[in-house]
Amino acid sequence: MNTTERVLITLLNKAIHKEIATLDELDEIHWGKLLYEAKEHHVSPLVYSAIDRRDAVKCIAPELLKDWKKEVFYSGINQQNHIIKVGEVLEKFNENNIAVIVLKGLVVREYFPMPQLRTMSDADVLVHKEDLERVSKMMEELGYTQTKDEDDHGAHIVFHKPGQPIFEVHWTLANKAFFKGDTSWEDNLWEETVEVEVGGVKTLSLGLEDLAVHLCIHMAVHLAHTGFGVRQLLDLVLLVEQKGDEINWSSFIQKAKACGIYKFTLAIFIACNRLFSMELPIELKKINALSKISNKYIELLIEDIFASGVHGTKDQTRVFASEFAFDQSEGAAEGRGSIFKKYMKLLFPPIKDMGERYSYARKFIVLAPAAWIHHLFVGLLNKDYSFKNKMKMATATIRVGNKKNMLLKELDL
Fold first, then answer.
1. DSSP secondary-structure letter at 51?
2. Where in the chain are the domains?
3. What CATH code is assigned to 3-308?
4. Distance of alpha carbon 104 from its chain centroid, rounded?
5. Helix axes 316-325, 387-410, angle to 10 degrees
């Protein structure tokens, strides 16, 4: 970790434990860099809550502090409105007698010192697969539009309505595309649910044990696909700290093994312990979790978390490299040679797989070199990325991809 990342962790630690940083701890911080990191991980309001306002004016530029304060104020209002609107839709589920389980942020926000500090922009829920048609009809009656079906991250349908929260409706939490394992751990999900309130509306949440498993699954999926940020770690830390005594950790470990994320889960718990001093459950201590994965890979994991940002898209080079490091059909790539082959295939794709603009090469195979040069120029002239970013991607993709590849293989993803 660099200095800014260490300061971010220090302030987040204070925030989630309802502590305030002293003036000495705030001195000599590069606030512009810190705020950038906080925004990339969607934890800016949390960091702000750990700062004594009287001390802040002594060390933070007035305009930066003013804008930050305004951002946190409006973020709080938006989060309160978000939960109210989500509650209104959940009420419709109840009225239509459609069983629904709320997931992730809608539940763990209650473990934060102030729920509105845990930001979110959508709402993830789980329903029975046989209720999907009724759910679609209900959402359409509420003015929502189904924007896409099963997507690359797993089985869910996305519903969108201008000015309203995006709803991601899942019918399974197992994600076969991104990790090994089976769906047996889901067999008793519905029997083990607990009642919660969201926006003043009674609904269901996963049992604490299954909630912990799902948080780890979600991080595993995102690590394999692009990446995830510090906020996801905080969700797990607060769940473990506040509800750990109520979780059957032996059963949790068996479920993590069943869905193929056991080694990844060990790494995540070690990272949470290292960054936030989260006490490891005794069951993990008994299996000597701290020695199961070498320090090298824990450092790689933490590096990836900071470099990814909340949705894994902070650094486009890493996004690009992740596509080389993980193959949905095969899992982690098989070593450095495989990544290099994928990279070369991107630069010089099979002629039969190239677009219509290169049809001349399919007709006359001797023109293949010309088509590949044409393909490279099209890429260089693409306006979606700056020339600087293209060069960075070209030179860094294999290096970053190799590191990501090693991490995914070590964690059995």
1. B
2. 3-308, 316-410
3. 3.30.460.40
4. 11
5. 40
Q: Give which of 49, 48, 88, 85 is closest to 68, Cα–Cα.
A: 48
Give Cβ neighbours of residue 314 (< 8 Å, ≥ 6 apart). Answer: 40, 227, 229, 307, 308
pLDDT of 315 reads: 64
**SS3 call for 327:** strand
| Pairing state between β 166-170 and 156-160 | antiparallel
3-state secondary structure of 169: strand
Report helix, strand or coil for 186.
Answer: helix
Adjacent-strand bridge partners of 201: 198
Letter for the amino acid at 102?
Answer: V
φ, ψ dihedrals at 313, nearest 5°: -115, 15
Cα–Cα nearest to 203, from 94, 346, 337: 94
70-78, long-range: CB < 8 A, 24+ apart = 71/44, 71/45, 72/44, 72/45, 72/48, 75/44, 75/45, 75/116, 75/119, 76/45, 76/114, 76/116, 76/117
Q: pLDDT tens digit string along 240-255? A: 999 999 999 999 999 9
Q: Is the pLDDT of residue 302 over 60?
A: yes
Question: What is the rounded CA–CA span in Å between residue 408 and residue 413?
Answer: 5
Q: What percent of the chain has pLDDT over 70?
A: 80
| CA gap 18, 9 in Å, rounded | 14
Block residue for tokens 């699954």: 217
Cβ(279)–Cβ(273) below 8 Å: yes
pTM for this predicted structure = 0.82
φ, ψ (nearest 5 deg) of residue 205: -125, 160
CA proximity to 349, closest of 333, 328, 373, 324: 373
| C-alpha–C-alpha distance, residues 406 and 399, integer Å | 11
Structure tokens at 191: 């029997």
- Phi/psi of residue 259, nearest 5 degrees: -95, 10
- Grouping H, G, I as helix, E, B as strand and the rest as coil, residue 326 is strand
Convert the pLDDT of each residue in 325-373 to its tens digit.
555 444 444 444 455 565 566 666 777 766 777 777 777 787 777 776 7
